[in-house]
Input
Amino acid sequence: MEKIRIGVDLGGSHVSIGAVNNQGTIIKQLEKDYTIEEKKDILNVAINYITYAIIELKKEFDFNSFGLGMAGIIKNGIIMRSPNIDGAKNFEIKKILEEKTNMSVNVENDAICAAIAEYKFGHIKDYNNIIFLTLGTGIGGNIIYNGKIREEEEYQELGHTIIKENGIKCKCGQNGCFERYGSILVFKKKVMERLNLPQNLDGPTLREHIRLNEDKIEDIKEEYINDIVLGLSILINRFNPDLIVLGGGFARYDYLFLDKIQNRLKENVPIKVAELGNDAGIIGASIL
Ligand SMILES: [Zn+2]
Output
């Protein structure tokens, strides 16, 4: 049987389990989108699906451990908190999964998983000090410093860096957090509102509307670019990186923003877009 590694990406809308080979390629993937009803009980639904998927993959591949990445603060296999998943507070997910699957399980923050994957298999191997940001529903991120990922809590909360005094209220209790301006969701919501589009529109259709209406959303785009530049400048001055990597949902819209962000950024730090896209979470979790 082929030796592979298994990685799990546990998100707020779906859970994916992938078998990853030595080159960092997903060769088989099992995935479940939650129904509206299931979203009220994500952790139990996801744990049951992971258990089923592990049994299925075991029929085909040789492994006795797996890794799991998810949003939030994770310590020693316990979810301390996870803003987008109900009930995810002091939840012993590692212990529960180990009991259910008879495997050894490693659990880590999903942005850390994505950074590990990009660092090992992506195009950022030659840099030492990297700010890695995932611009998605919120902003996740972390810092690679001297080639090592900084796992301290303060380096995992980059999305809650305050970029505007007395700015928009954030879920975390502060005002003016970077994620209230720079997440790709903020941009998408403003566009959908401007163009009178339904909020549940899929990505490809939204991008087609953007292409056809670029003149109508020019100011939204400009504002988004300026806010990203503002946030990045603050992070650059704090951490002095030699590279910034932007990933998450942003990677599907980078063609709208990237050149302008790079041009307007006064600090001369190169910006790259994450290469592995949505696969990074699974690939990173598989090598925890
Ligand atoms: Zn915040």
Summary: The radius of gyration is 19 Å. The pocket of zinc ion is lined by residues 160, 170, 172, 174, 177 (CB under 6 Å). DSSP finds nine helices and 15 strands in the chain.
